[in-house]
Amino acid sequence: MATAEPKAVFDVESVRRQFPALAQEVYGKPFVYLDSAASAQKPNAVIEAEMQCYREYYSNVHRGVHYMSQKATEAYEEARDKVSSFIGSGCKREVIFVRGTTEGINLIASTFGRQRVGAGDEVLITAMEHHSNIVPWQMLCEQQGAKLVVAPMNQRGELIFEEYERRLTERTKIVAFVHVSNALGTINPAAEMIAAAQERGIPTVVDGAQAAPHLGIDVAALGCDFYTLSGHKMFGPTGIGALYGKLEHLIAMPPYQGGGEMILTVSFDKTEYAEPPAKFEAGTPNIAGAIGFGAAVDFLRGLDLEAVAAYEADLLAYGTAALQAVPGLELIGTAQHKAAVLSFLIDGVHAHDVGTILDHEGIAVRAGHHCAQPVMDFYGVAATARASLALYNTRQDIDRLIAGIGQIREVFG
Ligand code: PMP
Q1: How far is the CA of 132 from the centre of ligand 1 (A)?
Q2: Ligand 1: does its nearest atom lie under 6 Å from the Cβ of 279?
Q3: CA nearest to 100, candidates 248, 253, 242
Q4: Which of 18, 121, 308, 395 is deepest in the core (most CB within 10 A)?
């Protein structure tokens, strides 16, 4: 079961101490959190940043002439700067605060999508998408009389690149794909996929919900047209995320929602819209959430992300080997390039029973279709159990998981 120790040094214990939730007991047992792909735990710095905003300088942003409003506005805009530089965007105006990846993709589909996609056109996605990168495109295609086309994957859960390329045609108006699959852990060859689309003049949308907590993101190097993030998966608050879009698109796109904040002037005859990003942030935003998101970005940037990646790769290899050694256990998703996700089936035991028994051992895993029903259909299963890893997990967590699976065997024989 043992694999080589990680090369780069990463002090997981000092990281764990920053996450108060991890120090708890569940049913009298030390808590093992293996559900970070659903949502990550929060470090003190994020909790404190959000509380500090409410305690010390809370006010609405962009509107008030008063001191508190200016202070809140500064902090909110500073958070935008942080996100922008974290993902390598050259310009903070390219970062729109949204609720998360789901809202980001819906925003693109209902603005850029409606502009670009017409009757007979196609939107290309992959076979391993989360529902939030399927349904908005399906809705768009239904509205516009267009077709949703799916690039297939192989049994390991890897995109079949030639098949992807074959589906990039003159009818393809948008390509949308997941950077890292939440159900399988597959890391897609994003740069190559974007380059292939770009060669044909097709804009690309990348669902980065699972990538951002594990990989360094550089939207400029990737060359994508849009990239989406969920703050809560990056150790930040819920209800906040970011949509990156190339400025030229954001300028040309119609607004998403109408209301306050997104306008220059309003009369009953006509409204002039604000410039991006304000154009896409109608209404009072999630002010404290954005500030907490900025703190999460600071937390990540305070770490040696290469060392984190090496540490996580080691943990994944350790977990993969440990699970593969369990008789009657099948791993779902065995891509060569993979991050943080261990989806599995245990012969004769329903995934929900796996989740419930592990829960009684103090181990939190996810059981279900992971909002990726087409992935489950591909493997001919209704659900899997999924242990997902983050930078605060340890080999001991994996050992506890394996011991918990041993309990399942005792119950089910
Ligand atoms: N895409 C992927 C790959 C995801 O894992 C998730 C969250 N499970 C989403 C999109 C949707 O993100 P959110 O719920 O934060 O909007």
Answers
A1: 7
A2: no
A3: 242
A4: 308
Same domain, 61 and 209: yes
Task: Spell out the SS3 assignment of 308-376.
Answer: HHHHHHHHHHHHHHHHHCCCCEEEECCCCCECCEEEEEECCECHHHHHHHHHHCCEECEEECCCCHHHH
> Is 321 within the bounds of a domain?
yes
**Same structural domain, 312 and 226:** no
**Nearest Cα residue to atom 6 of ligand 1:** 209
Q: Is residue 5 part of a domain?
A: no
In a domain, 358, yes or no: yes
- The rounded Å distance from CA 316 to ligand 1 centre is 21
For the stretch 14-38, pLDDT in tens is 999 999 999 999 999 999 999 999 9
Q: Is the minimum distance from the CB of 126 to ligand 1 under 6 angstroms?
A: no
Task: Tell me the pTM.
Answer: 0.96
Q: Is residue 281 part of a domain?
A: yes
Q: What is the pLDDT of residue 409?
A: 80
Is 371 a catalytic site residue?
yes
pLDDT digits (tens, 9 = 90+) for 147-200: 999 999 999 999 999 999 999 999 999 999 999 999 999 999 999 999 999 999
207 CB under 6 A from ligand 1? yes
Give the domain extent around 402: 12-30+304-412
**How many domains is the chain built from?**
2
Q: Which one of 254, 284, 301 terminates a domain? A: 301
Percent above pLDDT 90 for the chain: 95
CA–centroid distance, residue 133 to ligand 1 (Å): 9
Same domain, 73 and 168: yes
> Whole-angstrom Cα distance, residue 193 to residue 173?
15
